[in-house]
């Protein structure tokens, strides 16, 4: 397995180097067929690269495809065709990288033995602890080694929409979700889901493991053992958080036909004094799970704008009562006198803003635009010196 990881890394680095040399010399980039012939087929005939023949050729070809895709993503990012932040050009891979991966397609003729082992070409039958049964025949398998020294096999399969629909039958329930730190999620029906705070609970263990690592001489065997302990401790936290997100997102998708959430500026919140708690909650990963599961199982996933005043509006009468400090968890509406729980009221307003709330007569409840009176549409008749004062008083 280590030999396959190393050969795939070398071929990837050779492809990046060939692209860089072509760019430096003003030459067109070599295509995938030219790189395959020069870096794989012909390279095996040279003494310094003869060991490439010891691994499956499919692994080397897929490594070249990964390099090709990395450059496509880079150029798409430069042109603005790729969403998200700008991506950097592909870099060389190091043998010291904590994460390594190889991919086998159907051409590699890998198989699953009757005894449940994964038979990989030029590697052999590998014992596997299966997390679930494969519903269909997979088209490819990717073997990944993470920073904690664990190996994972990830399969690509085609899902059946009919089977997915049977797993998640249609329902008439809808829900609005307000995410937070005190409670991870508060639903519009009043349900509050506590925040597990996986990182906070494991801080003592992580601190001790990191202290042990700092006392080891770099490059020694004891240093590598201590590094693995730190990596495994962090992996346990990440796995527990991911499992919590999967269970909760699946439960919400199964019980509700439509789900409404608020678009959160997670990157901005991660730069505040609440950064550690925000990262520990993992809102972005949870919302991504809700979105792809809703798309897979035929549910509706709605995101409202982050500037919607969900915490300022009374969900009963619709009166905007102004901003409130974070320590204010309950408040009373000045118009109708209803006592609101801050988070439940916000979740209800999220549901209403998404058009999911239904009145007693069955019509959707969504606050529409209120036409301004003629005397409020502008500043006609107001002296110039008083315009700034009026703007300030009506904000």
Main beta sheet: strand number and arrangement? 5 strands, mixed
Shape: elongated
Helix/sheet category: alpha+beta
Q: How many distinct helices?
A: 12
* H and E order: HHHEEEEEEHEEEHHHEHHHEEEHEEH
List the topology elements.
Blueprint lengths: L1 H23 L7 H10 L15 H23 L20 E6 L5 E2 L5 E3 L3 E3 L13 E6 L5 E6 L4 H7 L6 E6 L3 E5 L4 E3 L3 H4 L1 H12 L6 H35 L2 E5 L3 H4 L5 H7 L1 H14 L3 E5 L25 E3 L6 E3 H12 L3 E2 L5 E2 L18 H11 L1
Parallel strand pairs: 7-10, 10-11
Antiparallel strand pairs: 1-5, 2-3, 3-4, 5-6, 7-8, 8-9, 12-13, 14-15
Helix pairs in contact: 1-3, 2-3, 6-7, 7-10
Model description:
The protein has helices at 2-24, 32-41, 57-79, 161-167, 198-201, 203-214, 221-255, 266-269, 275-281, 283-296, 342-353, 384-394; strands at 100-105, 111-112, 118-120, 124-126, 140-145, 151-156, 174-179, 183-187, 192-194, 258-262, 300-304, 330-332, 339-341, 357-358, 364-365. It has 395 residues and is of the alpha+beta class. Strand 3 and strand 4 form a beta hairpin. Helix 2 runs antiparallel to helix 3 (57-79), helix 6 packs antiparallel against helix 7 (221-255) and helix 7 (221-255) crosses helix 10 (283-296). It is elongated and about 85 Å long. The chain starts with a helix and ends with a helix. Residues 359-364 and 366-395 have low confidence and may be disordered.
Summarize the structure.
Helices cover 41% and strands 15% of the residues.
Which terms summarize this structure?
single chain; 395 residues; alpha+beta; five-stranded mixed beta sheet; 41% helix; 15% strand; elongated; disordered C terminus
